[in-house]
Amino acid sequence: MQLAMIGLGRMGGNMVERLMRNGHSLVVYDRSADAMAKYAKLGAARADDLATVVSSLQGRRVVWIMVPAGEPVDQTIAELRPHLSPGDVIIDGGNSNFHDTMRRGQELASSQIEFIDSGTSGGIWGLENGYCLMVGGSDGAVKYCEPIFTSLAPPNGYAHVGPTGAGHYVKMVHNGIEYGLLQAYAEGYEILNASKLFPKLDLAQIAEVWQHGSVVRSWLNELAATAFRRDATLADLKGWVADSGEGRWTVQEAIDLDVPAPVITLSLQTRFRSRQADSFGAKVIAALRNEFGGHAVQKT
Predict the structure, then answer these.
(1) Dist. CA 12–CA 6, nearest whole Å
(2) Dihedral Cα 141, 100, 120, 153, nearest 10 deg
(3) Is 171 considered catalytic here?
């Protein structure tokens, strides 16, 4: 079927390519002319503005948005809306806050424009392996767009999880779980790396053997094996870890629901600590220990 993709970054561009491989017709738009040229060479039709995106689509129009969460999504929808007709569909495949998604769905419903949220996981590997899609929206709109979802996802990798907002809600919790998993692997490998009894442990070898029959085997651990084979000490990396919002939102939702989520919460806090070159809080602890017990401190 025909659809448009707005946003041709690492995810959006690969999704365009995967869709075209599966016989879909794509209209593409991005602020980068080079990005549009790349996918035009692969067979996509390029549009120079959002009005042209819509006018280039035939019949019931479907526009997929892959732009950063927050204001960029609202701005894109605001520019698209005057050019769309009742029954047309906007899909937000980014990591939007589910509260924003529900609001946008309600606003678009007043114009009879369908709004679908597709929580999307798969990263840069999605082009070849497929994307896990957690989709929220009306039954009719999701059914209409199902050929898109089944083309993007691997077998059994797409689910209609509920009404508008549910897709981003499920993806939010998915990413919260990811925070905890990443932190557990990080701590385990750090212990192995710090061992004084066994100072020459081969982390790539250990990660690889854990992929065969171990209860901790996973795709994330497979990626750890790949990273350690490339650089056993990760010497070229700085231990600075960003967060893109979903972990914070998961923790806030846990608080709102009175659900204990200590692992996810602490994993988020550890990311904050990774960005401090020298923690003032740690200095306070050192100073207090020195004051009450005369414990040794290190001077800068």
Answers:
(1) 8
(2) -10
(3) yes
User: Among 100, 113, 36, which residue's Cα sits nearest to residue 72?
Assistant: 100
The shares of helix, strand and coil residues in the chain, as percent rounded to the nearest 5, are 55, 15, 35
Question: How would you classify residue 207: left for phi > 0, otherwise alpha for psi between -120 and 50, otherwise beta?
Answer: alpha
Of 79, 178, 208, 222, catalytic: 178
Q: What confidence tens digit (pLDDT) does each residue in 179-223 have? A: 999 999 999 999 999 999 999 999 999 999 999 999 999 999 999
DSSP state of 83: G
Please name the amino acid found at residue 34: D
How many helices (H) and strands (E) in the chain? 13, 8
In whole angstroms, how large is the CA radius of gyration of the chain?
23
pLDDT tens-digit series, residues 82-114: 999 999 999 999 999 999 999 999 999 999 999
Distance CA 278, CA 243 (A): 19
Spatial distance between the Cα atoms of 45 and 52, rounded to a whole number of angstroms = 11
